[in-house]
Amino acid sequence: MARKTKTTKSSEPEELPEGHVKQEYDAEGNPITPSVERIEQSYNGDDLSVLKGLEAVRMRPGMYIGDVGVRGLHHLFKEILDNSVDEVLAGHCTEIDVVLNTDYTLSVTDNGRGIPVDINKDSGKTGVELVLTELHAGGKFGDGGYKVSGGLHGVGASCVNALSDYLECTVRRNGKVYRLRFERGVPVGELKVIGNSRPDEHGTQMQWLADKTMFVPALTEAGELAYDTELIERRIRELAYLNKECRFTYHDKLNDKEPEVMHYKRGIAEYVAHLNENKDALHPKVIYFSREKDTTQVEVALQYSKGYNEAVFCFANNIPNPDGGTHLSGFKTALTRVVNTYARKNGFIKEKDPNFTGDDVREGITAVIAVRLHNPMFNSQDKVKLMNVEVDGLVNSAVGDGLAQFLEETPAVAKIVMEMASTAARAREAARRAADLVKRQSVLESNNLPGKLADCTERDPRKCELYIVEGDSAGGSAKQGRDRRTQAVLPLRGKIICVEKARIDKALDNESIRMLISALGTGIALNIGGDDDSSLRYDLTKLRYHKIIIMADADVDGDHIRTLLLNFLFRYMRPLVDEGYVYVAQPPLYSIRVGKDEKRYVRTEAERDQVIKELRRKDVHITRFKGLGEMNPEDLADTTMNVEQRTLARVLVDDAVDADAAFTMLMGEKVEPRRAFIETHAKQVKDIDVH
C-alpha cells in the first residue's frame, strides 16, 4: 500500500541499448519530463520524425502503461491476462494457466481460439505478428471482434512486446503448433510450425521477459525484476470470481510454491463471502441477483455484517471501477427504495418519521456489482467510472425486484437490515451534530488544539507539509527542527480511537481526531459517494497541506499509531489517500557516529550490522533511539524533515478491495484472522510494518 521514495545522488551516465531513453526522476521518485529548453537544443529538420509502431512505446512507455516502476511492470502481466480473459467473455475459453518462472519470465496460456495465423490481406503480416507489433490491431474493434471485452483499445499485447527483452507467442490452431519469437518488439524470423496438435486443441501462450533497462525503478537490489507474487495471485483470484465459467491456475515457480487452482462456480456470491470472511455476517447466505437484456448482463451479490463501513465494488467487463458509475447509481437507488418501502409497510418507520438515507441502508454492507456489455463508455482512459445510461436501469430493476422478493421471503433477515438502518440513522444525526461542531471550531483556537498546531507561514497548499506526531515531546523536537516556512507540526495526544470498531459519532468524540480534521480543513467524508447529505460532503479543495506526513516511533507502538491514523484517513478522508497526499516518515532506529565528524543513520538492526562491518573501525559509537522524543532537533531534521535527505513512504491504494480487507482483518473485531496474520508473517520480519 505504500511506496518509499527518496532523494538519491546522480550516478555516472550509463550507456543504453539503441532505442532506449534514460528516464530521470525527481526527489519523490516521479518521472521527469524533459524541459522545453532541453528539447530545443537539438531541434532541427533531422529531428522531425513520426514515431511509428512499437518505437513510440519504447520511447514513451509512460504514455501507454502509466509508469516504468513496479506498477508498470505488473501492468504488462495484467494486459496479457486480460487478453485471455476476453476470450472467456467471448465464450471461447474455459481454462487459463499463469506461471511465474525461475528465470523471471511470466507465461499466460489459455484454451481460447488462438490468435489467427493466416496472412492479413491489408498488412501482409500474419495475425500473430500484426497483434504483437501494431497498436490497435487486436480483435476488439469492429463487429468481427469481441462483443464483450475488458481491453478497449487493443494496445495491450503489442505494448508488452515492445517493453520486453523477448517474447514468445505459441499458438495451437488448425491441428498445428505455431511459434514466433520477438526481441525488444522485433520479430526474429517468421512464424513457424513447430509441431502438431489435436484437431480440437486450440489456444494461445504468451511468455515474456520484461526488459530490465526499461524498468530500472522496478528492479531489486540484486538487479532482478521485483514481481509481487501476492499481487499477481490476487488479480487472478479476482478474475476467477468474476468469471465463474473459467478455471484459473497459478504456479509460482520463482518462490517454489505449489500450483493453485481457482475456480468458483458461484462466482461473485463466493467473492462476497470471501470479502466477508473476517467479518461477522448477519445472515449466512449471500444475496444474489442477475439480469440480462440484449447484449448486457448484470450480476449483483451482497451481504450485511456487523460493522459500520460499506464496501461496494463495481466492475465492467472485469475492469474495476473505483469511482462507480451508472451500475453503482442503479444499485444505490434500488437498495434505498426497497428498504424504505419494506420499512414503512412493516412499521419499522413511523408515518411521521423521515425515510432512511442511502448511507443508513448501506451501513455494514459488502456488495459486488459486475456488468458485461458490448460498448462500455467510461469517463476517462483510466476507466474508473462507467457512464452507460442503460446500465442504471438494468441494475435498478434487478436489485429492486430481487431484493423486494428476498425481504418478503426472509423476514428474519429483513428485520436485521431494518434495525441496522434505524440504528445507523440515529448515529448519523449524532455525527451531524458532532461534524457541525468541528466545522464551527477554528483551527487556530487554543481550546480546539491543546497540542498547539505549529502552522507554517506559506499559504500555498502545494508547498505546505503537515507532520502529524504523537506526544508533546516529539512535537517539541519537530517544531524546532522544521522549516517554519513550509512545514507545520501537529502533536496528537496518545492513540486515536480505532474507527474500524466505532461509528463516526463516537470517533468525533475523540479530541485528536477533531484536531486533525480541523487542521486539514477538508471536513470528513461521511458518505464518499456524496449522494445523500450535502452538508457532510468532503471538500478536497480546502486541503491546507499537500503533504500529510505521519511521523511515529520506529517500533511496534509507533506502527500501531500509524495504522490507526491510516485507518481513519482511509475510511473518512479517502480522497487524501487516492490523490497521493499521505506519506509515512521513515525515522531511523540507530545513529552511528564515526570518529568526531561523521554520523550515519540506519532503520534496522541488519543495516546497523552491515555499516559496522563495512567500517571496520574501533571509534564507532552507536545510539539507539527509543523514540522521536529522544532525538534532538538536529537529528530529527536531518533524518526525517530535511527534504534533501529524508526518506518518505507514499501511501497509495492500488486495490480498494485489498485495502478494505486489510483494515478489516488488522483492525476489526475478529481476533483469529489477526493472530493468523501475525503467526504467518512473524518469521519473515522482525518488525511488522503496516503501511
What does this entry look like structurally?
- Helix content is 34%, strand content 20%.
- The strands form four sheets. It has an eight-stranded mixed beta sheet. It has a six-stranded mixed beta sheet with strand order 1-22-18-17-15-16, sandwiched between helices. A five-stranded mixed beta sheet has the order 10-11-14-12-13, with helices on both faces.
- α4 (70-89) runs antiparallel to α6 and α13 (472-481) crosses α19.
- β15, α13 and β16 (487-492) form a beta-alpha-beta unit.
- The protein has 21 helices and 22 strands.
- The protein is flat and about 75 Å long.
- The chain has four domains: 64-255, Heat Shock Protein 90 (2-Layer Sandwich), CATH 3.30.565.10; 268-425, 2-Layer Sandwich (Ribosomal Protein S5, domain 2), CATH 3.30.230; 441-587 and 633-681, 3-Layer(aba) Sandwich (Rossmann fold), CATH 3.40.50; 590-624.
- It is α+β, with helices and mostly antiparallel strands and 691 residues long.
